[in-house]
Write a structure and sequence with these properties.
CATH superfamily of the largest domain: Phosphoenolpyruvate-binding domains
Largest sheet: 8 strands, parallel
Strand content: 5-15%
Radius of gyration: 22 Å
Strand order of the largest sheet: 9-6-5-4-3-2-1-10
CATH class of the largest domain: Alpha Beta
Bound molecules: glyoxylic acid, magnesium ion
Distance between the termini: 50 Å
Shape: globular
Structural class: alpha/beta
Length: about 350
């Protein structure tokens, strides 16, 4: 049974705000994670928030069981006292099958529901998880008199969740986006990696043996373990107007491989990534902001085809309506980022 499309944009509870028709598009190059139970980290939040597009208080994995409540209360305190300005304020709550999820939602929506933009749901398995969270949020929004609806973001980190990805994306107008959760996903799928995101040296393809010299070493090229999942996620998200994100890259010291993973995700259609350490913020900023030379090129193409139709040659390369559209994607992103980031505004010469 399907729900009537006429009801999709009606609030699910009397007194709850009407669902959003469009997901707001704001710079979202990095979702920076912090642990609100960690006093030292909590004190740095106002300063870090100035330097990132999204700051996220994490209540789920990496917060130990005995600190779950301290993290929740710490997040409420931060939400009440910090002015986040233009930076989005998100949280990752505990999973729906945990004993903390209900109180996470009740406490957070009741105390800082007007400050939060997005609630990240871990370990989403199917649309039923989104229906449940959607209805419960509508109840809480009505109870606490919220004026704008909270959005939901699913982490793609179970095999069943990947199988159900299109149903998840379509489950509610609250769906803001999704992130790849490579660590839990690897475990759920029985992959044999023991790391958080990134490549694996054993996942390779190899050239054929040389018949004239069969014992000669054969070149191998490492492949990307996450390519398939990222493609699925980008299509599922963009087809409903939601946004796709890379997830965590756990080897904090390996900034080169981190940059490669982020850049692949950027080129494939992701708008941003998680950052787990201050070092990764600069990488995400560099990767998920178009390069100034790409922006200059995009500007040239768009200016040479004022109404976006026909075909022209620029530097020996054919441009038509479709390359014009690609260039618009880059230019729109550059404009969005410049509206928020003076450093990039200057780099782009806007
Ligand atoms: C993130 O939560 C992951 O499991 O990779
Ligand atoms: Mg996880």
């Amino acid at each position: 049974m399907l729900r009537s499309p006429r009801d999709f944009f009606k609030s699910k509870v009397v007194g709850a705000p009407e669902p959003l028709r469009e997901i707001p598009v704001r710079p979202a190059r990095m979702i920076h994670f912090f642990d609100p139970s960690n006093q030292k980290m909590a004190l740095k939040v106002p300063e870090i928030a100035m330097n990132v597009d999204i700051i996220l208080g994490n209540l789920e994995d990496a917060v130990s069981i005995e600190r779950k409540e301290a993290a929740r209360e710490g997040l409420i305190k931060i939400g009440k006292t910090v002015d986040f300005g233009y930076t989005q304020f998100w949280t990752r709550v505990n999973s729906l099958d945990s004993p903390w999820f209900l109180d996470d939602l009740i406490r957070l929506v009741g105390e800082i529901g007007d400050k939060l933009d997005v609630i990240m749901l871990p370990k989403v398995q199917g649309p039923w998880d989104i229906y449940f969270a959607d209805q419960l949020l509508a109840q809480l929004e009505a109870k606490y008199g919220l004026k704008k609806p909270l959005m939901l973001h699913a982490i793609l980190e179970t095999a069943l969740g990947v199988s159900n990805i299109d149903y998840i994306a379509n489950a509610s107008p609250r769906m803001q986006g999704m992130s790849l959760g490579p660590a839990d996903l690897a475990a759920s799928r029985r992959m044999k990696t023991t790391r958080v995101g990134g490549g694996h040296p054993d996942y390779v393809v190899r050239t054929d043996p040389d018949p004239k010299n069969p014992d000669a070493p054969r070149i191998t090229a490492q492949q990307d373990l996450w390519h398939y999942t990222i493609c699925k996620m980008v299509d599922a998200c963009t087809s409903v107007g939601a946004l796709a994100f890379y997830g965590p890259f756990g080897d904090i010291a390996d900034m080169i491989a981190c940059e490669d993973q982020f850049r692949n995700a950027y080129l494939m259609g992701c708008v941003g990534t998680w950052t787990l350490h201050p070092n990764q913020i600069a990488i995400a900023k560099r990767v998920f902001s178009p390069k100034p030379e790409e922006v200059a090129w995009a500007k040239r193409v768009v200016e040479s085809m004022p109404d976006g139709s026909g075909a022209v040659m620029i530097d020996g390369k054919m441009q038509d309506d479709a390359t014009w559209k690609q260039c618009k994607v880059v230019l729109n992103l550059a404009n969005l980022i410049s509206s928020r980031d003076p450093e990039y505004k200057a780099l782009y010469g806007f």
